[in-house]
Amino acid sequence: SSTPLKVAVTGAAGQIGYSLLFRLASGALLGADRPIELRLLEITPALKALEGVVMELDDCAFPTLAGVEIGDDANTIFDGVNLALLVGARPRSKGMERGDLLSANGAIFTAQGKALNEVAADDVRIGVTGNPANTNALIAMTNAPDIPKERFSALTRLDHNRAISQLAAKTGAAVTDIKKMTIWGNHSATQYPDVFHAEVGGRNAAEVVGDQGWIENDFIPTVAKRGAAIIEARGSSSAASAASATIDAARDWLLGSASDDWVSMAVASDGSYGVPEGLISSFPVTTKDGSWEIVQGLDIDDFSRSKIDASVAELAEERDAVTELGLI
Ligand code: NAX
Q: Which residues of the chain have pLDDT under 50?
């Protein structure tokens, strides 16, 4: 169809926004034949900087960019959007307690959930990148009662891509030879990147690696702490890779995952794999026509069970904290 897809991006003047908008506008989401219209939400003090970014978008003369609207009012910006990428969030500043961080983000994601509920298109899909992503998605979902719960997801695709990259480097395989990677749980240091169901060139990845020590002491912590390593090296948090993963996740959600593979998405649990219903937790999912399904029937051994349980326990704690704060 040549009707532009209306895509909202929040935090559009931020670091991730600076990579994300240009990729979206150049056709990385839906290809060169489908125009998109960008709806960019920022806080008032960042609108001037955002105007500069829009000048640069104009200067790219992207054939697939059908229009750009910017503003600081969610009800205006989210009006009729088909896809909302919620990237903007309140970062943890020095001396900020966990509860303060959850309240600050709670204010953002309750308001944005309500606005989406009011004005988004009937087919809207919402992807949350801003941290704490899983719990922010839970807050937005709970504050948007008229939007089906399965339309909300939080981003663990960056973790998924990091895990593929690490496994490819270890085994000497190409990233395209790695299939069925899974991130379980929270997008945090407790996440569990699972190679036991992954494949390298069609063979079981754990068997190809043949080194439980590497999996436990190298692979898992490297993937889980990659964000911190990037900050240490670059002086700022991952941005281009986060933007790329945000697009990968949205593209696969809308257009479907490959038939011989799955992807990781944090979605509302239906109780699968013992994850309490309603928590936004990362699972292996297949996607098709804008819907996702949790991959069923995977054997979870004791090692994986304890890792999944630990991350899910953290999600339950975050949910309890935002419940106590009255945000959900
Ligand atoms: P920046 O601080 O560069 O940009 C955030 C932008 O959001 C700012 O321009 C700010 O003005 C805006 N903003 C704040 N409140 C807003 C509101 N109520 N409405 C609209 N805009 C608002 O951060 P950046 O590096 O772009 O990261 C954005 C978020 O992504 C952070 O929460 C970060 O922690 C998170 N990340 C999530 C990742 C993931 O894999 N899920 C990985 C990368 C990143 O760390």
A: none
Asked which of 122, 154, 186 is the last residue of a domain, the reply is 154
Q: Measured between alpha carbons, how far is 56 from 68 in angstroms, rounded to an integer? A: 12
Q: How far is the CA of 18 from the centre of ligand 1 (A)?
A: 11
Q: What is the ipTM of this complex?
A: 0.99
**Domain span including residue 171:** 157-318
Bind-site residues: 11-17, 92, 98, 105, 112, 129-131, 162
CA 39 to chain centroid: 19
Q: Which entry of 125, 151, 180, 187 is annotated as an active-site residue?
A: 187
User: Which of 145, 153, 87, 156 minimizes the C-alpha distance to 116?
Assistant: 145
Same domain, 167 and 314: yes
pLDDT tens string 239-262 = 999 999 999 999 999 999 999 999
Among 116, 131, 154, identify where a domain stops.
154
CATH of the domain at 288: 3.90.110.10
Our answer to whether residue 197 is catalytic in this structure is no
Q: Strand runs (DSSP E) across 42-156, as ranges?
A: 65-71, 83-86, 125-128, 152-154
Q: How far is the CA of 90 from the centre of ligand 1 (A)?
A: 7
- The CATH number of the domain where 88 resides is what? 3.40.50.720
Which residue has its alpha carbon closest to ligand 1 atom 29? Answer: 130
